[in-house]
Amino acid sequence: MSRTFLILGGLLGTLAVAAGAFGSHILKRSLSAEVFAIFEVAARYHMYHSLALLGTAWAADRWPGRATTAAGYCFLAGTIVFSGSLYLLCLTDARWLGAVTPVGGLALIGGWLCLIAVAWRSRENGPGA
Predict the structure, then answer these.
(1) What is the 3-state secondary structure (H, E, C) of 94-124?
(2) CA–CA dist 17, 109 (Å, integer)
(3) By the 8 A CB rule, do 15 and 56 touch?
(4) At what angle do helices 33-62 and 66-92 cross, to 10 degrees?
(5) N or C: which end of the chain has fewer CB within 10 A?
(6) Neighbours of 124 (CB within 10 A)
(7) How many CB atoms lie within 10 A of CB 53?
(8) CA 64, CA 83: separation in Å to the nearest integer?
(9) Which pLDDT score, from 0 to 100, does residue 129 have?
(10) In a structure prediction context, what are the per-residue pLDDT tens digits for the chain, which is 129 residues long?
């Protein structure tokens, strides 16, 4: 799983940089300040969770298991749903997408909770557990 999460984290990070550049160089001129602020939140969380997925790749090498795998998939799904819904909201003005965004946020929170569980379990079972 570590290789998969490393590849996916790298891909998401690449897309986050591209989205940020697209937003600041192209969209900033055509979006209102309020909508552009939403786009920036999407890009910021996109990058944060690309890095979280890279950290999960490291954790999967050190502490393989269901919780580590779940963390990676939660970060992946959460980033796609959270940031993706905000990107689409900004680009299409489909306001209903704002109702989808919290589902992605819950998945991101789930990823962090899974990593906490991995760390807690490794503390209880010793190094490499």
Answers:
(1) CHHHHHCHHHHHHHHHHHHHHHHHHHHHHHH
(2) 22
(3) no
(4) 160
(5) C
(6) 8
(7) 28
(8) 27
(9) 45
(10) 789 999 999 999 999 999 999 999 988 888 899 999 999 999 999 999 999 999 999 999 999 999 999 999 999 999 999 999 999 999 998 989 889 999 999 999 999 999 999 999 886 565 544
Residue 62 tokens read as 């050190």
Residue pair 55/5 in contact by the 8 Å Cβ criterion: no
Q: How many CB atoms lie within 10 A of CB 26?
A: 10
Can you read off the two tokens belonging to residue 93?
């003005």
Contact 83, 46 (CB under 8 A): yes
Residue 108 CA, chain-centre distance (Å), reads: 6
**Which three-class secondary structure state does DSSP give residue 85?**
helix
Alpha carbon 4 to its chain's center: 15
Residue 52's identity, in one-letter code, is A
Total residues belonging to the chain: 129
For the CA atoms of 107, 108, 110, 115, the dihedral, rounded to the nearest 10 degrees, stands at 150
Give the sign of the dihedral formed by CA 12, CA 14, CA 17, CA 18.
negative
